[in-house]
Amino acid sequence: MRISRRSFSGLLFSAVAGLMIGAAPAMAQDKLSVVATTGMIADTAERIGGNVVEVQGLMGPGVDPHAYRQTRTDIVAMTRADLVLWHGLYLEAQMEDFFHKLNDRNTVVAVTDTLPRDLLRGNDDYADKFDPHVWMNPELWKPVALSIRDALSAQRPDQAVVFEGNTEQLLAELDALSAYARETLATVPQESRVLLTAHDAFGYFGEAYGFEVMGIQGISTQSEAGLNRIGVLVDMLVERQIGAVFVESSVSDRSIRALSEGAAAKGHDVSIGGELFSDAMGAAGTYEGTYVGMIDHNVTVIAAALGGTVPSRGMSGKLSAGF
Questions:
Q1: Which residues are 34's β-sheet partners?
Q2: Segment 130-163, tens digit of pLDDT
Q3: Which residues make Cβ contacts (< 8 Å) with residue 97, sequence separation at least 6?
């Protein structure tokens, strides 16, 4: 008998959950065990939770959340956790059914659920969905941080004061990050404020900082990038004399390099302006492997490549590479 992928996932979940009933928690009793899907959520939970929490992130550097499917190890971790934090807005598209099933057994929070819907962009790939890439604007990540604070406090009300203090520190840092982004990106010449990347992950960035944003693929990396789309973008690069395009750490660079080669064939040189962190952060243990470092990197790389003025190593001198 042939078993569908969805049926298999459900059977696997049921089997693992059954094994975990009555099992001792994996984490120490004095710490709140938290599982987070993306690196951005995991980092924010660690900043807010401090020594009170033990956070496990499922999706590391270079991992595409649009295509990610839970593994058996992930199911075990989430079934045993005190709290599971996921993004929502159809970012983890392949895992949504699983989270709805898990919600019957554990405390599961979609951290974007409290975002006012009038602040969200539409999603051309899915008519009834929103663009999930809200972390590209630190001002939109602030209410997500508050949602994470509230989820932690609901689990450990005796530590709410600690979570509140850590959140205030993080919000102040996000304010500084927003100010740095506005000031730095304002130095890019108006005619050069075109951001072309592998997929349409920078819409909120463009709205916040006055950039025209284009992606070869749509909001989801699961959408197709046809040859016609690449041809149209090549013509645009040549006509508008755009000098740089950008690859992404979690998406293949094949289409972006095809754009650059297509423009070169028409006599226009287009450089690869740098690698941006779109759906995943940098390497663990690095500044770019934090939410603040991820955005600092993106802002600095974009501004430098498009003719702006940037500090040598970003907002606070912590970037791995100089400019």
A1: 55, 83
A2: 999 999 999 999 999 999 999 999 999 999 999 9
A3: 6, 9, 10
